[in-house]
Design brief:
alpha/beta; 16 helices; 9 strands; binds FE2/S2 (inorganic) cluster
């Protein structure tokens, strides 16, 4: 059966970023500026994506504002008929640049918060003055009238800030807030001792969000990604592998999810060599975990297999060494208890564990740009 067409494309325009968040979803091996796709190639890819059926384009990074051609890229995406969402830390955006992006047709902005106070936000992001700058950018976004979503990645150090994050979202006039507990891939995996939430925090977060969703109904949409390590059921990662969305890395490799490069047996096609539709429908990486042909007996015989599709392949890889294994968050996984105990041990490490900040190769070169 032919796979469904994708709805969303996440374009990682660059891995360059002024922040150094220790939970960054970018791979440990970051792409250097000179390996990035150029403006014309991205424009061609946006057009191919629209032809393939993609409706929403998320312009991400790294920090997408680090691309000098961001306005041209937005215009190209708009020309292709795509709905454009800029996912940004705000650093690198000026009022003038935002006005240009508006004129180029940018539809929506998603602004990340590393914390709700300057002290914590700047510490987590590894960027002094970042929170203050972000609030200035948020005010310009409001003045121009962009629809705004706030995005807060939560972990042991800032989970207590959910109520304040909800207040800030309302003050800034955001229509939506995405409260996402950190997913342990890449840099976050290397920071489990510092970032793993406690079970009590995870449970409290669910209570707060449930109450807030009720109280703020019709005013603020709350998207919530809970801390699944303390759970019994795995998440439906990416809405199902190769079914709804795709990522393109800065160098043009096309990925079924942001962490797919951690699965060693997969090989990835690049938009430099092949059309996007061929990669989506026929690419080996996209077909590796579609359907249930790859599943072990535990997943294949499970009545939830059409709901969670066996959970997250990258999490199975990270925690069991086998990307075909049942996601160890699932209570049916043979690794479930061990992974849960490890999570509790990471969560009990206390507040003084130093953060292992994301290191960007060539950061000095970037600063000079
Ligand atoms: Fe890759 Fe979940 S992050 S499948």
């Amino acid at each position: 059966m032919r796979p469904p067409r994708p709805i969303a494309l996440l374009a990682e325009l660059t891995h360059r970023c002024p922040l150094s968040c220790p939970y960054c979803s970018n791979p440990l091996e970051l792409t250097r500026a000179e390996q990035e796709l150029d403006t014309d190639t991205w424009a061609r890819v946006f057009s191919e994506a629209a032809d393939l059926g993609v409706l929403q384009l998320h312009l991400s990074g790294g920090e997408p504002a680090a691309r000098r051609d961001l306005t041209e890229l937005v215009a190209a995406a708009r020309n292709a008929g795509l709905y454009t969402n800029l996912i940004t830390s705000g650093i690198g955006l000026t009022q003038k640049r935002l006005i240009e992006l508006d004129a180029a047709g940018l539809d929506h902005i998603q602004l990340s918060l590393q914390g709700t106070t300057p002290e914590l936000a700047d510490d987590i992001g590894g960027y002094a003055g970042g929170f203050k700058r972000k609030m200035e950018v948020a005010a310009w976004i409001g003045e121009i009238g962009f629809p705004l979503t706030l995005n807060v990645v939560l972990h042991r150090r800032n989970l207590h800030q959910i109520p304040h994050a909800l207040e800030i979202a309302q003050e800034l006039g955001a229509r939506r807030i995405e409260i996402a507990t950190v997913q342990f891939h890449g840099w976050a995996l290397a920071n489990r001792d510092a970032l793993m939430p406690t079970k009590a925090q995870a449970q409290e977060a669910i209570k707060i969000v449930t109450k807030a969703r009720h109280a703020l109904k019709g005013k603020l949409v709350i998207d919530f990604v809970p801390a699944d390590y303390h759970d019994q059921l795995p998440k439906r990662c990416m809405g199902g592998w190769g079914t709804t969305g795709l990522n393109i890395a800065p160098d043009g490799q096309v990925l079924p999810c942001h962490a797919a490069q951690t699965i060693p047996h997969l090989t990835f096609d690049t938009v430099r060599d092949k059309p996007l539709s061929e990669i989506w429908f026929e690419g080996a990486a996209f077909n590796a975990y579609r359907g249930d042909h790859w599943m072990n007996d535990t997943c294949k015989s499970c009545d939830r297999k059409e709901i969670d599709f066996g959970g997250c392949r990258c999490q199975a890889m990270a925690r069991t060494g086998d990307p075909n294994a049942t996601d160890p968050v699932c209570a049916k996984s043979a690794h479930h208890n061990a992974v849960k105990e490890q999570a509790q041990a990471h969560a009990a490490m206390g507040e003084d564990v130093p953060l292992n900040y994301r290191q960007a190769p060539g950061k000095a070169d970037q600063a000079a740009e």
